[in-house]
Write a structure and sequence with these properties.
Distance between the termini: 95 Å
Number of helices: 5
Strand content: under 5%
Helix content: over 70%
Radius of gyration: 25 Å
């Protein structure tokens, strides 16, 4: 008795599958790069405005907005893969394709594509891992910068208050 399903024995990685996967992965990374630049530009512009106003909670709001921008770009990337799967007939409709691609992008699911496109499930998972790592790096960088700004602002405020306090010469 054979331990492998018949579909596994019949599966052969095809050059077409590798080329499509490489192209989709490259497009995903390019779109994500645009998303990360957009995130940094929007965050930088907001930091410049907020830095002057010193609004409480503004730093956290900037990080939340950055995370939303990143999520939108990740969903666009998943949509590209889902569109490909639908156009190639690997999924019955765009809604199923999007759901399954999103699960695979987050590395939660595999095994939904026809055997002839099986390699793309792993490549989609790799795309998700790469983009999530990149996104995490951007968010950590933004959080670090905002925390550094907050610490510097606190130090400056403490310095100003120490200078403006009257010195009682009798206690010296």
């Amino acid at each position: 008795m054979n331990a492998f399903p018949a579909s596994d024995l019949a599966y052969v990685i095809r050059l077409e599958e590798i080329l499509w996967g490489a192209l989709l992965l490259a497009i995903t990374i390019a779109v994500h790069g645009i998303g990360m630049l957009t995130t940094l530009r929007v965050s930088s512009a907001l930091k410049a405005r907020v830095g002057k106003a010193r609004l409480p909670g503004a730093g956290l709001a900037i990080i939340v907005l950055a995370a939303w921008i990143i999520v939108v770009f990740n969903l666009i990337e998943v949509g590209m893969w889902a569109t490909f799967f639908t156009l190639k007939g690997a999924q019955p409709n765009i809604f199923s394709a999007f759901y399954n691609a999103l699960l695979n992008y987050t590395t939660l699911q595999a095994g939904y594509l026809p055997v002839r496109w099986r390699l793309l499930e792993g490549m989609l998972g790799m795309a998700g891992l790469i983009t999530f790592a990149w996104s995490t790096g951007i968010l950590v960088s933004l959080a670090h910068d905002l925390m550094h700004q907050a610490i510097e602002a606190d130090r400056a405020a403490q310095s100003r208050s120490a200078v403006s306090e009257p010195v009682d010469s009798r206690n010296q």
